[in-house]
Amino acid sequence: MHATISSTTDAAARRTPDPRWRPVDIIVAAVLAVAAGVVFWVWDLVSNPVGAPIEAALPGLQGIINGPWLFAGVLVGLVVRKPGAALFGELVAASVSALLGTVWGPLTLVSGLVQGAGAEALFALLLYRRWGLGAALLGGLGAGIGESILDLTVWYPGAKPLFDVLYAATTMLSGTVIAGLGSWLLVRALARTGALSRFASGREARARA
Question: How many angstroms from the chain centroid is the CA of residue 145?
Fold first, then answer.
């Protein structure tokens, strides 16, 4: 009887996420976000040469290159699995990118806020209880939705409806694949090294390997 009660309690604990952040959660989230911010900065430098011919071929299609700016929140959310982790990850990464120097200046932080909030909203819809591939793809999609709304409002006001649709669709696709699938694969790769052994995300990924 005691064993049955203990088993039921343990199962309930696994289903109910603990919102409290441990020191290791903060440290690892910050490290991942800072690394992502450096990636953001590098992509800032090369995105225009990459995106210009795509935009010239079909205006709106350049949304396909937005994914590398959307992965920080998804990655940190998948690893830490705490409310606010996706928003934290994207904001810290955007701050690092801004400090290193970007052409967008303070608006970089606005992008981080919107992207992180988009991923956070989709994780919240899952009640922070599901963290598999499907959740990763949804997180990337959420970041892409947030970025699409911001870009079309700030950078492309008054654009033709076809442009709006194409830009939003390609941004969301890029977010889903690059930020969503890419982050999920990265978590699995990190887990195999043992770097995430203090996280459920790392233990689960290693168990599946």
Answer: 12
